[in-house]
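ZP: hey, is the LP5 complex queued? I don't see it on the tracker
AM: it wasn't, my bad. submitting now with these inputs:
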Amino acid sequence: MNQTITNQTTLNNVVHIISDLHLCASRPDLLQLFNKYMTEYAPESQQLYVLGDLFEAWIGDDCLAPENAANNPNAAMYQSVIDSFKQYAENHGELYFMHGNRDFLLGQDFEKVTSGKLLDEPTFVNWHGKKTALMHGDSLCTDDVAYQQFRGMVRNPAWQSEFLAYPMAKRVEIANSLRQQSKQAQTEKSNEIMDVNHQAVEVFFSEHQIDCLIHGHTHRQATHELIVDGVAKQRVVLSDWGDRGFYLAVTSQGIS
Ligand code: LP5
Ligand code: MN
C-alpha cells in the first residue's frame, strides 16, 4: 500500500528522521542516547519520522498490557520510550512510524499510547519541492531471496494472527529462534546480497517519479547520487545507532 502525505513543508520547517535504533533492555546505553536525542535534539523539529527497527524485536502490542508487562524485562524501557514520544507529540510536533523487519507488529495500541501515526510503506512526501519516498529499505534487498521469502511469510496477516495468539513466553521463544536463524543465515550471505539491489532502486525511482529516497535497514549510511531516466536523484541511507545516535534533518537548506 502506498501513502502520500500532502502537507508541504514551509520555509522554516525542520523534519527529523531516525531508524534502526534496535532498542532493548540489554542495551541501556541505547536508551540513554535515545533519551538525550528526544530531550536535546528532537524538539528542534516539527515532524519526527521513525523509519523502522526502533526496537530490537516487537512481539505484539499486548506486551504493553499490565498483566504482560510484569514479567517483561523490556517493560520499563518501553514505558520510557512511549513517554518520550508522547511528550514530543503533545508539545513539539507530528510523530510518524514505519515498520521495520524487527518491529512490523507495532500496531494501533502503540500508535495510541505514543500519539504517533503508523505509515504505510512506502510513504511519499513533498519536502521543499522534492518528491521524496520513505521506506525501511528491506524490500529493496531483492538479491536476498531467502530473506524475501521469510518476509513474505511473516508479513502475511494469517501468519501474524497465529503468532499473536500464542502466549507471550512462546512468542519470545519464537522471536529468539528467528534471531538465531537469521544470524546464522547471514554468515552465509555476502555483503552485496544484503544491500539494496540497484536495479530495484532504479525501477522504484522511475515508477514513482521521485527525486529522493530515504531509507534505513542496511546500516550503510551514505548519500548516493544517481541518474535515473537522465535526471539526477538522491538515495539517502540512514545509520543505525550504536556508540552514537544518528538523525537526519531535512530543512529548506537540504538534508544533513
Ligand atoms: O534482522 P537483521 O537486520 O539482523 O537481518 C535481517 C534479516 N533477518 C530478519 C529476521 C529477524 O532478525 C528476526 C527477528 C524478528 C523479531 C520479530 C518477532 C516477531 C515475529 C513475528 C512473526 C509474525 O529480518 C536477514 C537479512 C538481513 O536483514 C539483511 O537484509 O539477510 O534475513 C535473514 O537472515 C532471513 C534468513 O535468510 C531466512 C530465515 C529463515 C527463518 C526460517 C523460519 C521458519 C519459520 C519459523 C516459524 C516459527
Ligand atoms: Mn531492518
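AM: back. The first strand starts at residue 3 and ends at 5.
ZP: great, adding it to the tracker
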